Recover the amino acids of this structure.
């Protein structure tokens, strides 16, 4: 059987998960990343393993994706997650009203819930607001944003995948209407070269629109930055979410000895130029302290922004109205063969995104090999450096 060569553009969690999946299916895999792996959005999110609860009311497709992947990842990445669960907390009567929709939505999506009284919630999270009325427990968990992705990379590397970091794509090579490879520059040596492949997969996250432009195809991507704020001190042990529709500053994520508050949302044209608006930082304090009053006085550690790769029309205003689901684009219907894009989604759904994309890739190449990433336990993140 012919050994096909797949080239992946983008060294984030999605690219790593896809390299892992395709390597298990027997393909030769090369991945190029203009910086170090996880140096884009993957290394900047707040480290939440979603239960799907945040999307259970208005974005059920994303909610189902999250709870399914939540359960798979706990099995194939043992030891990666702090399985601390999460609380959606109701502070006002409006929150209480929303809780009914929330519980109903979670039930529809297969997300387990357990309602707690004010006294029960304060017993396990004493730093919560004294205005708390009720809370609902859901199976959120936390993770090190980069270490989870490195397990994909480590296992893919063990199975023969090759990673070319600090290697930026300058252009996409085409013969007629077929993509045949990419022209790259190695930023360490300054040397340019062409890497040929049987298929090229665009997994560049918020940059996937720029890569698609090189090919002359359309990817409806809206880079949507969000500001996150890290404070010193572990102000909660569970993930604390506000019992409201998705909004600014509606989550506090415990990360080791820190507490991360997020996030805001707006849209940009250039994911390399996000900015860090001061009023967004203040919004994290203002909304975070409504759930945990100690947020306001906790020592500041850092603030940053990261761009979500949301799928949607160019006219979206803030990104809040866009789904967090993902989509795989086979650009053959645009007259281009040999080129596939995977974008959208979340860190939690990277494995599922890779499975869907690998299915498309294998079908296009005529490779009969099933997905194995639902069962194969991955190597530890350290194996990426030592393996």
């Amino acid at each position: 059987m012919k050994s096909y060569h797949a080239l992946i553009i983008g060294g984030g969690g999605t690219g790593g998960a896809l390299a892992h999946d395709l390597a298990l299916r027997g393909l030769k895999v090369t991945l190029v990343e203009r910086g170090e792996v996880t140096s884009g959005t993957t290394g900047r999110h707040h480290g939440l393993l979603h239960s799907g609860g945040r999307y259970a009311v208005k974005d059920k497709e994303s909610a189902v994706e999250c709870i399914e992947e939540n359960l798979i990842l706990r099995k194939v990445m043992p030891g990666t997650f702090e399985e601390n669960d999460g609380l959606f907390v109701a502070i006002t009567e409006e929150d209480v009203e929303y809780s009914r929709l929330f519980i109903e939505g979670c039930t529809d999506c297969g997300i387990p819930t357990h309602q707690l009284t004010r006294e029960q919630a304060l017993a396990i999270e004493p730093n919560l607001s004294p205005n708390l009325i009720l809370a609902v427990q859901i199976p959120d968990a936390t993770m090190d944003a980069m270490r989870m992705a490195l397990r994909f990379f480590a296992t893919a590397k063990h199975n023969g995948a090759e990673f070319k970091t600090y290697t930026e794509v300058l252009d996409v090579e085409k013969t007629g209407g077929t993509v045949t490879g990419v022209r790259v520059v190695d930023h360490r040596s300054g040397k340019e070269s062409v890497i040929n492949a049987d298929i090229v997969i665009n997994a560049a996250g918020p940059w996937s629109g720029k890569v698609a432009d090189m090919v002359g195809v359309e990817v409806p991507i809206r880079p949507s930055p969000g500001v996150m704020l890290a404070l010193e001190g572990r102000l909660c042990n569970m993930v604390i979410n506000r019992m409201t529709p998705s909004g600014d500053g509606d989550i506090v994520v415990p990360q080791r000895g820190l507490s991360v508050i997020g996030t805001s949302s707006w849209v940009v044209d250039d994911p390399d130029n996000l900015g860090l608006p001061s009023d967004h930082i203040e919004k994290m304090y203002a909304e975070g302290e409504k759930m945990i009053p100690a947020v306001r006085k906790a020592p500041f550690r850092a603030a940053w922004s990261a761009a979500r790769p949301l799928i949607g029309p160019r006219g979206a205003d803030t990104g809040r109205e866009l789904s967090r689901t993902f989509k795989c684009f086979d650009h053959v219907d645009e007259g281009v063969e040999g080129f596939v894009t995977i974008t959208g989604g979340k860190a939690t759904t990277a494995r599922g995104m890779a499975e869907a994309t690998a299915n498309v890739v294998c079908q296009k190449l005529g490779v009969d090999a099933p997905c194995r990433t639902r069962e194969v336990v991955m190597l530890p993140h350290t194996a990426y450096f030592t393996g």
Notes: The first helix runs from residue 13 to 24. The first strand starts at residue 5 and ends at 9. Residues 314-322 have pLDDT under 50 and may be disordered. The chain has nine helices and 20 strands.
